[in-house]
Amino acid sequence: MQILPILSAMRRNKVGAVLIALQIAVTLAILCNGLFIVHQRLALSHRPSGMVETDLFAIDNEWIGDPTDVSSRIRADLAALRALPGVVDAANTDQYPLTNSGWSEGIDLKADQQTRSAFMSLYMGDEHLIDTLGLRLVAGRNFEPSEILDRGSTDRVQPATIIVTRALADKLFPDGSALGRSIYVEGGKQPTQIVGIVERLQTPWTGTGGWQEKYFEFSVIEPYQFVDTGSWYLVRTKPGQLAAVMQSASKRLLELDRNRLIQKIEPVTDTRVSAYRDDRGLAVILAVVCAALVGVTACGIVGLTSYWVSQRRRQIGIRRALGATRGAILRYFQTENLLIATAGALVGIGLAIAVNLWMVTSFAMPRLSPVWAVLGALLVLVLGQLAVLWPALRAASVPPALATRSA
Amino acid sequence: MFAYYFSLAVRSLKRNVVLTVLMIVAIGVGIGASMTTLTVFRAMGSDPIPGKSAELFAVQIDNWGPDSSGSTNGKQDRMQNQLSYKDAMNLMQAHPAKAQSAMYASSLALTPANPDLQAFRVHVRAPYTDFFAMFEVPFLYGAPWSSADDAAHAEVVVLTRALNDKLFSGANSVGKSITLDGHDYRVVGVMNDWEPIPKFYDLNDEKFSKGADIYVPFTRAVERHMAIEGNLNCKDNSESGWEGRLRSECVWVQFWAELPTAAAAADYRRFLQNYAAQQQASGRFHWPPRTSIKNVREWLAYEDVVSDEFRILVLVSFSFLFVCLLNAMGLMLAKTMGRARDIGVRRALGADRSAIFAQCLIESGVIGLAGAVVGLLLTGLGLLGLRTMLSRDIANLTHLDVIDVVIVIVLAVSTTLLAGLYPTWRATHIQPAWQLKAQ
Amino acid sequence: MLKMTHLSKAYRTEVVETYALRDFSIHVRPGEFVAVTGPSGSGKTTFLTIAGLLEEFTGGEYQLDGADVRGLNDNQRSRLRNEKIGFIFQAFNLIPDLNVFDNVDVPLRYRGFNGAERRRRIQKSLERVGLSARSKHYPAELSGGQQQRVAIARALAGEPRLLLADEPTGNLDTQMARGVMELLEELHRDGATIVMVTHDPELAIRAQREVHIVDGQVVDLVAQPRLVRSGSQAQI
């Protein structure tokens, strides 16, 4: 197929060709970046928290009035919960993952440091917390019951022992020697010894970018019973018993003591859905817009090519009369479309990378690999060829007899 | 001639249904997508208290110093966006502004009088009495508490209308008593509906959702050790206990001042710098004074109220509009050049270039209007979609007001006219001789 | 009425210069019915488009109704066309979107007449060509002859000084062609000035005189009085 004659014939329809090429370029730029963001957000929303999220629910418990014996009440609650049929384990804590609400603190390798070695989020719990959340202890040991002390939200104390996540351990002690070493938490002067390391436990926050992503897996568990006006009870149930236990748990707690407010009882799976709602929403919206973009551009190609075909009916008839086959006419228009689309795609690749670079600086987005841009371009070329098929087939069916008509 | 061209346009569009529908749909879809995001974007960035936003200022004092490790929440200028209790109290005492209020957010259990009803959590805001006058909060019954109440740590509350409806079926509850966290409080006033969007006075949690359910004097809240909701940021080690927190450099208090004139603002700036200099002199601060006041608009920009996700969505949707307009331009070009002969005939019959220009432009305008209608419908649909898919915080922003509708129409017509400019220009340069010669 | 003196029209490409009209002169007086004939490519269509102010010319002079048209801008030429010239094309060139009434209306719209004046003129024109009954029909619903008559009505509605016809019967069968020619002759008898371009010698005879163009130049000037009678071919 001779490309030059096609190109020179296109000069008569310069503007139309430029319009299609431009549409393809912009569509490609948005498609690449949009789908990239979709992929990124969906990946984000699937990040494991470290907990085993099935068969786990949380109770938001708040004491009314200002009871003085909160500690014994909490202990009574925990005993009651653990005794319920269908319950595997239960624990009381100040925060849990995916709530986007929590306590973050600094952590140092030495006392009296000016700047923090790292930041972490602080989970408080007794020796039941690890099993309740379904965390995996990969080194060292769990807390002993004798190590657990009471702590309120305004108490400034430092624990003697601590369990950290593997990510935090590697950050503080890249040589792998974290277990048994001492660190200084919450700006304190007393050393705290690392007695255990869990595989993974995310901080409560799920946001993108910035410090939330940077410190995502830096968590610690301190051996405290969180004794305060409000705290979370986490309850792990036997498989299939979640709904039943949620009901019986709140009943049992209210039986024990009416002077409380159970603001929320929620399976942790629901917490995940709420946490990533906006990310999922953004992904859906972007996916819809990308699909619509492709549709609009395809319609544009169909429309404009149909017009060109109708303008050139006589010419097509002449070609057929001179011996061109149907296939030749079809190939002519497909080649023409391919040339325009390739031009558009080349510009589009450049545009996609430029847009991505700008987003990297403005929005702290990760970089788009050029491979994706090229793949996107190929996809767009294929779609363009599909779109032009219908008008091209119509062109191919123009009868040669048209050459002899005067109009 | 306008009516003539209008009827010509309508007739021409009717005869070419497929092409017309494609053009209108192309524009409508583009407008729908871009207006959906623009509506929310406008709401996000809108002035929540027009008329007074230039007179209300958020106060910042650098009480951590430039060397502090800073928590993860420091801004670019490394200043905290809240005050410590100490600074807030000092400012409230000195009272250099026409009106000012320290405040913080908390939550409490409310036990209804009816023993059959369950206790439930209410969101609390604990300001000083100036809050209500400063922010022009409308009242349904009663009035805010007095400064004497502030000084006396009085056990009084102001209810929101919604809470009043829930507890007292909307009746005048002034003088009645409610139980918060096991203690009784007397109702002194009931607020009418008041929901500035964004919730500029406290942007710590959800920025666009409704505010507190109940208002308690700051002094009372502190005395009762009401737990701090929102953001509590502490630098280094501080003492244990509630008292220790009050003495510390932890920041958790929002502080707003009303400064009606530029002179008042300048005075207040000077006052703040002097105050910080005093703290430096007394040994509390070891760095040069750094303070700032920002009015509502500046504060919203500083706090970056519009999320990045939304900026991206707006850009994507307007690029989509651009593609749709290119599309429409191509279709209009095809339509115009397909009618080249008719245009040549009109020119032969005496139409000059401007007549052809007017005719084509008005046709573009008609398409734009039709596109506006389709766009409006799709915008409504789009906003509904956003409401269901995104979190409650954003859902409050997904409502069309009159200005949005006007923007839709203006945007649709103007962009269609723009897209139609090139085809129109081509039409005016059609050589009648060429058209009529060529058989 | 229409006076061209030593008119030339050149088309320049990058390499070659072709003359569609060369040293072309013609004088049509008011009330004359002139046929312009010549083989294909002789330049007769170019002559018509220049006469109708649809194209510019390269050299020479052209006076329409006593006024020199050289140097007129596009707007002025449009006005002149609108007020003084009525066109009749081989392909009728009615606007398919509009009905008969609205088609005849088109030149009047650009004239600036008010609604009542336009209606009066349209009705008068349609009566003249015998198509008042069909004013609501669309061109697609009419025969070729009827369409051409609508085109003539359109040309007449502005009461032009000059009628320019380009192969007016070219797309019609013999019967319809006869009807249209009879109409043209009637108009001529009523005082119209008509210049008709045609390649058909039998039609050319029905005009008052004939101008023959070959290769852009007038070759023959046959200025003999003719007997104008329907359906006859008298040659003197």
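qc> The longest helix of chain A spans residues 326-363.
qc> done
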